[in-house]
Amino acid sequence: MAGSAQPIKLTALAACAGCAAKLSPRQLAHMLQPLAASFPAAEFPALLVGLEAPDDAAVYQLNDEQAIIATVDFFPPVVDDPFAFGAIAAANAMSDVYAMGGEVLFGINLVAFPENLDSAILAEILRGGAHSLRAGGGAIVGGHSIRDDEPKYGVAVTGIVHPQRVLSKGGAQVGDVLILTKPLGTGVITTALKRGLAAPADVDAAVQSMMRLNRAAAQAAQAVGVHAATDVTGYGLLGHAREMAALSGVDIVFSYSALPWLPGAQRYAEAGCFPGGANANRAYYEPHVTFAEDLPYPARMLLFDPQTSGGLLLSVTARRAPALLDELAARGAQGWSVGRVVAGNGNLRVEH
C-alpha cells in the first residue's frame, strides 16, 4: 500500500537513517543501572517485567487473568515513502508486545515534524501508522507532537497477555533450537538507500519485510509453546541473542549459512554500507562472540547490523521445533532454524 507522491527524500532529513538513532548499548546500560536500583522488585510485586531483568517491554499484572504490556519506540525515516515509514515505525513498536507473547490493544502517536515540510507528508506517516495498528487488531487513540528539524515518528503501545503466558528473553534452555521469523539486512539496505546505492527491488523487499507484523509469529509461538523470545531490532542479531543468552544463563551457537538475508543485504555489506549503529553494537557485544576463523569481515559485521522491525528469535525444544515451523507457515509467517542453545554463561558462537 504505497503512499501519495513524495516530493522530497525523507531519508535525507534523518541524521542516522538505517540505524534508528538508538543510543549505543553501552550508553543505555550505563544510564539504566541507577534507575533499576530505584525500583526494587519487592516494592512493585505486580511489575512482572521491569528494569531488574531488562526485556523487550514492561509487563504489569492487573489480576489473575490479565497483565498489561507497555512499550514505546520512535525514530527518523528509514525509507522515503511517508506511508511506508509510518507503517514500519508502528510495526517496530508493536513488535515488543508480540515478543512478550501479547496482543496489541492500542497505541498513542509520537510525532516530531519540521515546520517547513508539507503537512500532507505527516498525514501519510500517520495513515501508515494507523494501518499497522489496525492490522494488529489495535487502535490509535491519540498522540503528542512537537516541532523539530528532523522528522521522527513512533508509537507508545499498550498490549495485553495472560500473566502465566508471558514470553521473555530469559527462558532459553540447553538443547533448544533457535527459530528466526524474518530475514536480516534492513540496516545495510536502508543505509544503501540513503547513499543512493540501493536497487529499488531490494528496497521494496526490505520495506515489505519491515511492514510485516510479528503478530502471527507470536501467536504461533504461543500455540506451540516456546521457552524464550525476543525481537531482533536495533542491537542486531548478536546483540539481542547475547541478551537472551545472558538472561538465560546459556550459550547460543548460530550457523551463518542457515541465516536468511534480504535481497542485496550481503552485497551492500561487501560495499561497506553499514549504519553507525553496527559499529556501536560490535564494540559492545563482540567480546562475548567467537567467530569461525574463516568468516569474513562483512559477514561478521552483518550480524551486528541494526534491524528495523525485524523478526522474532524464538527458543524452542528440538522436539517442538518442526511443529513451530509448521505453525508459522500455517499462519502465513516465515521461519528458519538458525542455531541452538548449549551450556554456558551468556556467550555466543558463530559457525560458518
Strand order of the biggest β-sheet: 8-11-7-12-9-13-10
**Contiguous uncertain segments of 5+ residues:** 1-6, 16-20
Q: Using DSSP, what is the number of strands? A: 13
Label the structural class: alpha+beta
Shape: globular
Query: Major sheet, described briefly?
Result: 7 strands, mixed
Q: What is the correct CATH architecture of the largest domain?
A: Alpha-Beta Complex
Question: What name is given to the CATH topology of the largest domain?
Answer: Phosphoribosyl-aminoimidazole Synthetase, Chain A, domain 2
Question: What sequence of helices (H) and strands (E) makes up the elements?
Answer: HEEEHEHEEEHHHEHEHHEHEHEE
- CATH class of the largest domain, named Alpha Beta
Describe the structure.
The protein is of the alpha+beta class. The protein has two domains: 10-165, 60s Ribosomal Protein L30, Chain: A (2-Layer Sandwich), CATH 3.30.1330; 169-351, PurM-like C-terminal domain (Phosphoribosyl-aminoimidazole Synthetase, Chain A, domain 2, Alpha-Beta Complex). It is 36% helix and 23% strand. The chain contains eleven helices and 13 strands. The strands form two sheets. Strands 8-11-7-12-9-13-10 form a seven-stranded mixed β-sheet, with helices on both faces. Strands 1-2-3-6-4-5 form a six-stranded mixed β-sheet, covered by helices on one side. Helix 2 (82-99) packs parallel to helix 3, helix 6 (215-224) crosses helix 11 and helix 7 (236-248) runs parallel beside helix 9 (276-285). It is globular and about 55 Å long.
Give short descriptive properties of this protein.
13 strands; six-stranded mixed β-sheet; seven-stranded mixed β-sheet; 60s Ribosomal Protein L30, Chain: A; 36% helix; 11 helices; disordered N terminus; alpha+beta; Phosphoribosyl-aminoimidazole Synthetase, Chain A, domain 2; 352 residues
